[in-house]
Each structure stands twice: as C-alpha cells, then as structure tokens.
Amino acid sequence: MRLANLIPNFLKPMLKPLYRAFVSLLFEKKRALRPKNLKEIHSYWRQPWDGFNLPQYYLEVEPRRSEFLVKIVTRYAKQNASILEIGCNVGRNLNHLFLAGFKELTGIEISKNAVQLLRQSYPEMARLTTIYNAPVEEVIRGLTDGEFDVVFTMAVLEHIHTDSEWVFPEIVRITKDLLITIEDEQTPSWRHFPRNYKTVFEPLGMKQIEELNCNSVGGLDSNYLLRVFKKANMRFDRIVENRISESIGWCSSNEPLRM
Q1: Any domain includes 144
Q2: CA 65 to centroid of chain Cα atoms
Q3: In a domain, 234, yes or no
Q4: Distance between CA atoms of 250 and 217, rounded to whole angstroms?
Q5: In a domain, 38, yes or no
Q6: Domain CATH for 173
Q7: Scanning 53, 96, 142, 204, which has the fewest C-beta atoms within 10 Å of its C-beta?
Q8: Going by C-beta distance under 8 Å and a sequence separation of 6 or more, which residues neighbour residue 242?
Q9: Are 149 and 179 in contact (CB under 8 A)?
Q10: Containing domain of residue 66, as a range?
Q11: pLDDT digits (tens, 9 = 90+) for 116-166
Q12: For residue 206, what is the enclosing H or E element?
C-alpha cells in the first residue's frame, strides 16, 4: 500500500508543500555531493546556488583577515609595488591595501555581481584599480612575465579545479618577486581541492621564506596556512629581522615560524 493512501485527504494539501521541500532538499544534497567538473565549478562561483559565498557576505566578513594580509604585504613589499589579487571578490582585501597606501592594484574576479558590488562599495579604490571580470583561466595567459611584484590569494587557490592546475606555473611566471598564499590546505569538498602549496610552488621556481598557521586570525582557522614565497632567481637581501615578533600577535604563540 502506498504511503499516500494512508494520509487523510484533508491533510494532503497541507503536507504537499512540505513533501516538495523535502524532495528538493534531497535533490540539492545529492547535487552538492556529486563531484563537479570545471564548468560547474565556474558556474557556482559566478552565481552560488546554495545561498553560501554570496558577494555581500564578503563585505561583512571578519575584517581581521584583511588586516592580517596588509601586515604581511607591508612587511615584504614597498608601497609602490604592483600587486595582483587572484579572486578579489568584492574587493575587501584590495581596499584595505589601498587604504594602507598601496595604489598599484589589480584584481581578477569571476563573479559579475561581486565586481558590481566592489565598484559600489569602494568607488575610489575601484576607480584606480584594474579589475578583470573573468575566470583566472581566461586572464592569466594574457599577463606578461613578471608583471606583478606581488601576487596573493586568500581562500581562492583551494577552489581551483584539478583540471586547471596549469595555472600554477602561470602564477609563477607573472610573479616578479613575492607570492603570498593564505589557503585552506586540509578541507575536502566538492568545491575544495586541498593542496600543500609549498610542494606546488617550490618545484616551479619559488622559495618559501615564511609559513604560519592562521588559527588565531579572525575569520580563518587552523586549516589555513600563510605561505610567503620569493622568486628563486631573485636575491632575498631584505629579510625583515622582526618577522617573528610581529607574527606572534597574529598566529598561535606555540606555532613556530618555519622556513
């Protein structure tokens, strides 16, 4: 006997919306857990369908993430450095850098909605910043060798599909001096592709000069690691002596600095 036959007729109109919602939830769960191809990953980041990772969220996210980034960039780069953020979203990180005196800024962002919100929220920074509104795969090959003194990412490379790992040597190619990654290297999911970025970038010509666990940085957790890389063919004669002491305030006191 079908379950529907056991339900009184007067209850069926009230239960039908609940049933549809339940079936929809099961469908979305199955959809979310299914492995995604590159096209599906791009589609998600253009327009997140699950209600998470919406552009407006990144305007409200814990500001200490961006403050931490500014501290790291300021430690290693001069204010006239040309800086690229891959996956700039609504521009929160870029605006923090802009307010800190860095003016040679560029961003790459796949989401049209995020870029529109960037221009609305930070008009002065947006006016002076080059923004490529496209996937990194469509932009990076058009950038020149060593075009940027500093290239950085925050919670972006972890979403690069395995089919797009060819962008990693391209990132090295366009980096003149420093590469900074702040990425979740542990969490697996249908839209996370965890990697150890030291093992990714050192064979490509970068030398890691700093590594820190970001478990005490607001908005991040112990799965996130800061890694700072220097282009291997560049002299590193500006090692900042107070790097360790400055880092203590941002990362766990029992977390050693590793080179």
Answers
A1: yes
A2: 11
A3: yes
A4: 6
A5: no
A6: 3.40.50.150
A7: 142
A8: none
A9: no
A10: 56-248
A11: 999 999 999 999 999 999 999 999 999 999 999 999 999 999 999 999 999
A12: strand 206-213
> Running DSSP on this structure, what letter comes out for residue 11?
T
For the chain, the residue count is 259
Q: In what order do the strands lie in the sheet with 130-133?
A: 130-133, 105-109, 83-86, 148-154, 175-184, 224-231, 206-213
| Beta strand 206-213 pairing with 175-184 | unpaired
Whether 140 contacts 170, CB under 8 Å: yes
Q: Which two tokens stand for residue 39?
A: 């096209």
Estimate the crossing angle of helix 92-99 against helix 64-76, to 10 degrees. Answer: 50
Give the E-state strand segments of 25-174 in sequence order.
83-86, 105-109, 130-133, 148-154
Q: What number of other Cβ atoms are within 10 A of residue 215's Cβ?
A: 14
Distance, CA of 246 to CA of 236 (rounded, Å): 19
Q: Looking at the domain assignment, is residue 12 inside a domain?
A: no
The single-letter DSSP state of residue 192 is B
